[in-house]
Amino acid sequence: MFSYIRGTLADSGLSYMVIEAGGVGYFINASESDTRRLPEKGSEIKAYIYMNISERDIALFGFLEERELELFKMLISVNSVGAKMALSILSILSYDDLITAIVSQDAKSISAANGVGKKTAEKIIFDLRDKIDLKEIYGEEGNIGIGHESEDGTATDSRNDAILALAALGYSNSEAMKAVKKVKNTEEKSTDEILKEALKYLL
Description:
Number of strands: 5
Shape: elongated
Helix content: 40-55%
Order of helices and strands: EEEHEEHHHHHHHHH
Number of helices: 10
Distance between the termini: 47 Å
Radius of gyration: 19 Å
């Protein structure tokens, strides 16, 4: 079983990369978000690998970051989500955007991926939401967010109220959460202050 492949980038396309290592060229399926970030051909590269074995073939799926591989594994753990569908999702949503979409229950963003319907997107959210560490979104303040409370409840209320206010203005939960995430020292600010600063990132 492969953990990662380190070698020379021999070729790449919109949905794949070929890494030459030890005289062997490995064809690796990759997300569009990763292939857009690839270095020039001939550069040294490291890809974290998942080997998918089916009755029809054996395929390699590779990621530039280990955390992307872990998120890919979480996606394919959901019933009816295969490796190609998971890669399709990661092609239109970055790691941070997908994490935010799951936590904020933004099925619309996930279902925008090719081959992903609304029901499948909702199932992904249902199965994975509780498995996401909110520190992935809010750093060490990971216990603060929709449905989560700080020790005194103040920061949570202000932050959540700001997110809800942005949603009422027509922004998606994902957009609202990402904007509020950018506001510094939210535990020291009122809802209005958080809202005003968050809007600066959205307008």
